Amino acid sequence: MYELGVVYRNINRADRAATDQLARFGASTVHEAQGRFGLLKPCMRPIYAGARISGTAVTVLMHPGDNWMLHVVAEQIKPGDIVVAALTSENTDGFFGDLLATSFRARGALGLVIDGGCRDVRDLTEMQFPVWSRAISSKGTIKATLGSVNIPVVCAGALVTPGDAIVADDDGIVVVPSANVRKVADAAAAREANEGEKRAKLAAGVLGLDMYKMREPLEKAGLRYVD
Amino acid sequence: MYELGVVYRNINRADRAATDQLARFGASTVHEAQGRFGLLKPCMRPIYAGARISGTAVTVLMHPGDNWMLHVVAEQIKPGDIVVAALTSENTDGFFGDLLATSFRARGALGLVIDGGCRDVRDLTEMQFPVWSRAISSKGTIKATLGSVNIPVVCAGALVTPGDAIVADDDGIVVVPSANVRKVADAAAAREANEGEKRAKLAAGVLGLDMYKMREPLEKAGLRYVD
Amino acid sequence: MYELGVVYRNINRADRAATDQLARFGASTVHEAQGRFGLLKPCMRPIYAGARISGTAVTVLMHPGDNWMLHVVAEQIKPGDIVVAALTSENTDGFFGDLLATSFRARGALGLVIDGGCRDVRDLTEMQFPVWSRAISSKGTIKATLGSVNIPVVCAGALVTPGDAIVADDDGIVVVPSANVRKVADAAAAREANEGEKRAKLAAGVLGLDMYKMREPLEKAGLRYVD
Amino acid sequence: MYELGVVYRNINRADRAATDQLARFGASTVHEAQGRFGLLKPCMRPIYAGARISGTAVTVLMHPGDNWMLHVVAEQIKPGDIVVAALTSENTDGFFGDLLATSFRARGALGLVIDGGCRDVRDLTEMQFPVWSRAISSKGTIKATLGSVNIPVVCAGALVTPGDAIVADDDGIVVVPSANVRKVADAAAAREANEGEKRAKLAAGVLGLDMYKMREPLEKAGLRYVD
Amino acid sequence: MYELGVVYRNINRADRAATDQLARFGASTVHEAQGRFGLLKPCMRPIYAGARISGTAVTVLMHPGDNWMLHVVAEQIKPGDIVVAALTSENTDGFFGDLLATSFRARGALGLVIDGGCRDVRDLTEMQFPVWSRAISSKGTIKATLGSVNIPVVCAGALVTPGDAIVADDDGIVVVPSANVRKVADAAAAREANEGEKRAKLAAGVLGLDMYKMREPLEKAGLRYVD
Amino acid sequence: MYELGVVYRNINRADRAATDQLARFGASTVHEAQGRFGLLKPCMRPIYAGARISGTAVTVLMHPGDNWMLHVVAEQIKPGDIVVAALTSENTDGFFGDLLATSFRARGALGLVIDGGCRDVRDLTEMQFPVWSRAISSKGTIKATLGSVNIPVVCAGALVTPGDAIVADDDGIVVVPSANVRKVADAAAAREANEGEKRAKLAAGVLGLDMYKMREPLEKAGLRYVD
User: Fold this and answer.
1) Residue D220 C-beta-side C-alpha neighbours within 13 Å
2) What are the counts of helices (DSSP H) followed by strands (DSSP E) for chain D?
3) Residue D45: how many CA atoms within 13 Å on its side-chain side?
4) Which of F7, F89, B65 has its CA nearest to residue D214?
5) Residue C149 needs a FRET pair 20 to 30 A away by CA distance; which of A22, C50, D28, E209 works?
6) pLDDT tens readout for residues A100-128
7) Mutate to test the interface with D, among C61, C66, C146 (most CBs of D within 10 A)
8) Is the Cβ pair B122, A198 closer than 8 Å?
9) What residues pair up with D226 in beta bridges, in sequence order?
10) What is the 3 state secondary structure string of C126-185?
11) What ipTM did this prediction achieve?
12) Distant-in-sequence, close-in-space partners of C3: CB < 8 Å, separation ≥ 6
């Protein structure tokens, strides 16, 4: 995590097929499936509702108020990638807009996760190019200082290593280390298979207290009822 | 407010008919009608726009990161209730998702107000199960520690006593003590009856300055005009 | 900026034709076109998505929790104005709702920018009366203390002089001093004319690195690639 | 909690002797002793380090930016009281300064807890009149709107009923319902008696793991060690 | 407020003698004396307690993460000045440390007010060079982008014109337009002369209710007492 | 970073001699010396002023509101260590107090960095056991859920690997990867050697503009002076 001015061209992207599956489960199920790790902070919000994507991370580290490296990272994007942008300190400027989105999409990017600000949200919504950001801001950025591309970064409180799988939707963003993607996808599938039956029972009025057999542990823990 | 590990089964719910009326007026009118009291802090936001509900509060107090008591409170829900969930300290984890919503709805709950995080917002939106929360987060919670059900709680800065009426919409959430519900509903109705005429006048170009006879008090207070 | 209890009736509004053009370009392009100045802080958000307006500022300064001056400013509105409301200290109360919106619209106002809270957002959305605010809150306000109308104010971190042009959309809010409006409108038009071609190139896969000739300055700055 | 414009003159103050003891234990021990309830939010900070007080609450509810009721509450102070000031919505204005502190002290107040701002902190520090507040601000307040005195209030997230005991120090502020003060003081004393021995053991290098017999439950919970 | 890359060398500094007097009164009294205007937001805090200064403003506008212009402003400092640094968007980086403080002091500066971060606070405290900032941060800044010196700026929500008087202490920071300094100093002196007598009365147990003759207006406003 | 319920007993601690040197330089100089990386967010503040330490990191990951693992990490502390505590989601509870500090000190710990809350700050100050935390809170924590010890963690936005060097003082906290500690210590020493001469020049009135030869690049960048 300690190099500035470097672009790593070759990264080990997570298994494509397994990565692609993650979007189907969504961020919350994937987060559960990997043991409740890898969640970015909830201050990160989608610029429009309804997007749900999964892809492999290409990462970029930038200086506050300077988006030069977004042009550098564009060249490193491969189809199926999601760009994950981190900053060296907190900043809400509008690093990204519809021109960069056009370029990213042309390179095959599925979306952007940026621990900073985004602009042109009306155009991005029309293009249906999804962005998760800390803020929306018209403030333009300069192109003066080097950062790095495809180094491990901390984005909104989570470590993202280039090539990791990312899944993002209305609930948030989860990073899955590339080595775990298959296992996590399987666990998520198993979890989901499970949920249909549970949902049906709950809808029929069965209580979680009974379905999950919680009455005994609750009593043991000392819960008492007063009429 | 000072008991952990207790579930009160019998609470005095506010008058149903009067409570049901409150939704029609909405949070802002009800807040005015009861003398500008009982508003939860504006950091509480609906997970989707357009919901407007009123109901009787069943309350639950939980530990940060632990949603065990949501399963306990489910059993205490009666048709027409709104669950009001408070935490012992600030936390944005995703305490509530579509499975619990399915269960709550099966019990007759109209919605949830939670001073914490919520997840599965896409599913909740599809189900049209309204939630007002402090955050949206994929972060799952554990089931390890007792809280209480149906004790008075402070939720987002407002005291909520079990059985109080709750009205919630895009403007926010207001609690009405059960003893006041009828009176407040009447005051809200009177207020609203009043508004149609006012709106027509204002739309016709009459100024509030004149309609509310403010010119004299403004002058008395020292307001001066400069050309 | 140092007078309380004064209403200035005559202000020099920015050129109407040039002001009207700004909406077409939007806040982000206008912000760029005037050299990245005049942006209000990104904590200011529209109450619904999709509005894009430009108009001339009438300003009002209020005390926290007191909206009396909104009735005073209503009388000073001319068609094509946008009301810009500042507070003497931070406060999220609901200063503005559908009745005032009805009055403002009758006077010709295009929208409101308020460094405080707003309510009746469902009605305002139905009316399509756009508001940019710091918060949404049911909390009503009193009418007890004088502020001023049409004095220069600092609103969400930006100086707004009465008569300045305002442009607001989903990206944020920008103030353009009245003396600069024509020049800024021209610069924005030039900027936009430019963007179509760029967008086409980027969509065709041309990289910003090449289109903006960034490779040489990046290399000079020391960027290195690692395979 | 739903009356404006009322001053309750007679309140049931918690037992004086038991209340006086609480300061000796401090906020953290008292908070533990009453089962981890009654803590005000940690955004409340002392204006200077080192104060530690306990007393009985007289309460006051004010409008943002209006400190009129602080003059009203002054008359209701009795020796040994702590004034607890709540606001109807968030506001950081400087409601309180050295003149009011002089008056409060003359009436016997031991300190102030205010969910708003404070000023004259240099003078207050010299006077050693302790204040816990949400902010420090020079902003003066007006005297225009009625609030109430000695009604139950929610202050920084905790319910305070007039007469409750308050204990405040560098760690924060805890409210103890008047009915519980003796019991809580006893529990705090027992807790503290216990701590000397524990501290000595820990200082000698005994691990909490052993002293609290945690190894077995940790193992049961699945903790594993890797060399 | 709309020029980048410009240094104004000649500014009209407020009257020195009157400016020097302001420190004696402190920020809160000066803020009152000029009608409760000109206060910077309370998020601005001194890096150490006890400093109280007044001086004339030299202003500087910088880009987030870039402190180049602090070197430029140093040359424009005259004895008795206070540097007021604003940013084009929110940023907490450490723009200022002990080397710049050494330089500023050698030029005659009395202190710094910066709407960003500061570092070397231990050294600055030893030097007794007072700084009011939004944050303390070790994060270094670059020297790549032009801002401006001695243009009007918005700093922490207040407009500061070069040459205005600044008064800063533990309570906060107030700006006094240069044209008003004498008048404000006189008003502050009158205010303070007044306070000694008031303080003595209050210390003797006289209530503000009586001293300020508030009982009648409170009764008129509807205040009622309940025994 | 993806294991819960594991304690790594053997970690590679950074070189002791080099680590010990870092405290002498302080966080800001070390941050510069390693190329402006590794800074924890500025919301982390020391509980008292004046502490300056450096040591090797032992890490712990905890659940919000649960400090069980602090007892587990105590056993893994070796003389010269600093405990770095991260949470799975944001929480300000008081995880740490004087008893744990007594235990940590007995094991040889120099201090604690915790991305949560701390209590007993008066006692910790008397003991001179330094803590950097996000908050101060009396709120106690439970002992119910496993976390991990000595896994890589993200603490306040920075990745900390067990054994890394930590330097912390009034300016903030910097992590230095163990492999870099010697190099960084050398760079910091060189930097500091440099500063004495610079300070003397600046104190003598030499401008940074001249000392750093900035006039030419500023002119090239377009800076212009107006008289």
Assistant:
1) 6
2) 7, 13
3) 13
4) F7
5) C50
6) 999 999 999 999 999 999 999 999 999 99
7) C66
8) no
9) F8
10) HHCCCEEEEEECCCCCECCCCCEECCCEEECCEEECCCCEEEEECCEEEEECHHHHHHHH
11) 0.95
12) C148, C151
How confident is residue F1, by pLDDT bands cut at 50, 70 and 90?
A: very low
Looking up tokens 């609450």 gives: D57
Q: Are F4 and A34 contacting, i.e. CB atoms less than 8 angstroms apart? A: no
Of B195, B166, B125, B199, nearest to B27 by C-alpha is B166
Residues of F whose CB is below 8 A from E5? 221-224
Torsion angle in degrees (nearest 10) through CA of F2, F4, F5, F9 = 30
State how far the Cα of F15 lies from the Cα of D82, in Å rounded to an integer: 53
Residues 6+ apart with CB under 8 A from D192: D25, D29
d(CA C216, CA D144): 65
Q: Does B172 touch chain C (CB under 8 A)?
A: yes
Report yes or no: E126 and F50 within 8 Å, Cβ to Cβ: no
Note whether A130 and A51 are within 8 A (CB). Answer: yes
- Does F28 lie at the interface with B, CB-CB under 8 angstroms? no
Nearest-5° angle of CA D14, CA D18, CA D20? Answer: 95
Bridge-based pairing state of the strands F81-87 and F172-176: unpaired
- Beta carbons within 8 Å of A87's beta carbon, 6+ residues apart: A61, A62, A63, A64, A115, A116
- Tell me how far CA of residue E124 lies from CA of C15, E130, E169, F198, F203, in angstroms: 50, 7, 16, 16, 14
Quick: pLDDT tens for D172-209.
999 999 999 999 999 999 999 888 899 999 999 999 99
| From D37, D41, D154, residue closest to B158, measured CB to CB | D154
Q: Contact at 8 Å (CB) between D191 and D35?
A: no
Nearest to E145 among A89, A137, A142 (CB): A142
d(CA D218, CA F7): 11
Q: Write the pLDDT tens digit of every residue in C140-179.
A: 999 999 999 999 999 999 999 999 999 999 999 999 999 9
Residue in this structure with the two tokens 């529209």, named with its chain if needed: C46
Burial class (CB in 10 A: 0-12, 13-18, 19+), E97: buried
* Dist. CA F150–CA F76, nearest whole Å: 9
Q: Which chains have 3+ CB pairs within 8 A of C? A: A, B, D, E
CA distance E60 to E67: 10
Q: B104: closest CA among B126, B131, B125, B86?
A: B131
- Would you list the DSSP string of F104-132? HHHHT--EEEEEEEE--HHHHHHHT--EE
Q: Which residue of E has its CA nearest to C5?
A: E35
How much is the average pLDDT of E127-150? 96
CA dihedral F158, F162, F165, F171 (to 10 degrees): 30
Nearest to B138 among A171, A208, A221 (CB): A171
Assigned token pair, B41: 């802090």
Q: Do chains B and D touch (3 or more CB pairs under 8 A)?
A: yes
Q: Chains touching chain D at 3 or more Cβ pairs under 8 angstroms?
A: B, C, E, F
| 3-state SS assignment for residue D23 | helix
Chains D and A touch (3+ CB pairs under 8 A): no
| CA A164 – CA A80 distance, rounded (Å) | 12
